[in-house]
Amino acid sequence: RTFRRLGLIPLCLWFGLAALHPFENLLRMKLIGTDELDLAKFIRFLSGGRQVSLAVAYILYIESRDYEVEVVTESEGSYPTRMKISQWEAALDDRFVRIHRSFIVNRSHVARFDSRYVHVGGRTIEMSRKYREQAVAKLDTAKASVQRATTPPVS
């Protein structure tokens, strides 16, 4: 009764939930199988009225369609959201490159590209003139680093 009169029940609930937060991270580490969990590798957003926590590495591309943005992943399908594409661009790291006013692609999932098109996740996306020069430069950098990593050293 004293807790109720003083309005301490919400405060107690908040402290209780805050105490469970470290256990959530431990559970994620066990499920993912890593010793160190880098929360920067996950992004949280609303999709269809529910909170989604998604590993950034699984995102193939992000497509803007009028008032809705669709986050397309390699294995989990796609997630519609109301978050603007410019907000996505600001929230994501340098693995992602804007190739069109309606598209952001994950460089690590780009199968191939040329001066006009990017092939990612079985889809061919045209680069716009506005973003082409910057996108090709970033994609070339990613391609060169992948080639360096996969080319065996010459002895």
Rough shape? elongated
Beta fraction of the residues?
Answer: 25-35%
Helix and strand composition category: alpha+beta
Profile the largest sheet: 5 strands, antiparallel
Measured on Cα atoms, how large is the radius of gyration?
21 Å
Average of pLDDT:
78
Count of DSSP E strands? Answer: 10
Helix content: 25-40%
Termini Cα gap = 79 Å
In what order do the strands lie side by side in the largest sheet?
Answer: 5-4-3-7-6
Low-pLDDT residue spans: 34-39, 146-155
**Helix/strand order, N-terminal first:** HHEEEEEHEEEEEH
Q: Total number of helical segments? A: 4
Compact summary:
By secondary structure, this protein is α+β, with helices and mostly antiparallel strands. It is built from four helices and ten strands; from the N terminus they run H-H-E-E-E-E-E-H-E-E-E-E-E-H.
